[in-house]
Amino acid sequence: MARLLRPFIRAVTYTRWLHLFMAVVWPAMWYYIFDDMWAWITAAGLLVLAGLVPQMRTVEGLQARLLLMGHRHDSKSMEIVVAPSATWGDRGRTIVWLEARLFLGCLVSMLTVQLPITSVNLVTTARGGTPDDGAILHITGQHWWHVPLAPLPLILLAAVVVGSGELITLIARRLLGASPAERLAALEERTEQLLERTRIARELHDSIGHALTVAVVQAGAARAAGDPAFTDRALDAIEETGRAALEDLERVLGVLRETERPVSSRPTLVEADRLLESARASGAKVDAEVTGSLETVPGPVSREGYRILQESLTNVLRHAGSVPVRVRIAVEDRALSLEVRNPLTAEIPGPGRGSGLRGIRERAALLGGRARTGPDDGDWQVHAELPLR
Question: What span, in angstroms and rounded, lies between the C-alpha atoms of 207 and 201?
Fold first, then answer.
């Protein structure tokens, strides 16, 4: 019983009913003035012309979202779109929607008036009275069993209210919903948002992870050394690394705050010396070799290459500690080659473990390149090749 009554305590049931009534108001005014069926035919013809106006889809979509779906006008739901008609297919669906709404609205409006009149006439005739002449269903005779039948039209009216609301909502989803092209565009936009979130997560992981690793290694080395001079140098390195991490964090947060902010402010391989000095200050013996001009590397490649180098050095400090590191950066005609090698230790992260190594491979793949991570001839190797064109 509670399940049957649940639709009648929902506000959307009655807003859908109101939505159908609104479609009939202006044609009904013509009909009562001219008392001619041509008023309805003219109204149907005018709706065809109205459906050709691109903005009509927006108007109908806003009404349907609010009254049929119970959504806010700025909802991101693709069930009902509020964009103007962009194709003739959109216009055709809008016309069919307007005609269907008018037809169903007329039917529901008529039943909303006639069914209660029928109930009243059943009770009136049972008492020997004269039924209302305005009713379409004529009831004659004086019969006691008219009284038990009186609730049936009202029950039917309740079913009409709920059923017509569900039907018009289903029609709206089909006719005012997103077209295949709009769904594809929304999917592409959603994909771009997910890629952007993934990129931001990688930025935070690489930048903050590098800074924290350097700070931990420096603090541990300073405490173990017990040398005031070394402690001062370690504190300087921690301060510099922390300041750089704060700058990177501000860049990433800037992307979140301002969606149109250019990514050109992100660090590039031209600033690779900062990473190398930070690793050296943490105790690693870095041997770096750069071939070619880093200034000629395209921005996207240079920025991703910087992050790959940063994550590679972070992994060395985190898993191997103060060991010799060989860094080779080569700018060639068609590709940027980046390699970081260090002696293997007992703690081997493995080629498939850790989000940092996965992020390196994802960065390379995003640019159409490739990256290899794992043991190689007694060393741990990170080798990335990024195409320049």
Answer: 10
Boundary of a domain, candidates 145, 178, 211: 178
Query: Which amino acid, residue 91?
Result: R
Q: What is the pLDDT of residue 256?
A: 60
d(CA 29, CA 24) in angstroms, rounded, equals: 9
Residues 8 and 146 in one domain: yes
- Going from the C-alpha of 301 to that of each of 195, 207, 265, 342, the distances in angstroms are 17, 17, 14, 24
Average pLDDT over residues 98-119: 92
pLDDT per position as a tens digit, 9-29 = 888 999 999 999 998 888 877
Q: Do 197 and 277 share a domain, yes or no?
A: yes
Q: Contact, 337 vs 385, CB < 8 A?
A: yes
pLDDT tops 90 at residue 91: yes
**Which one-letter amino acid corresponds to residue 224?**
A
The CA-CA-CA angle for residues 360, 366, 367, to 5°, reads: 100
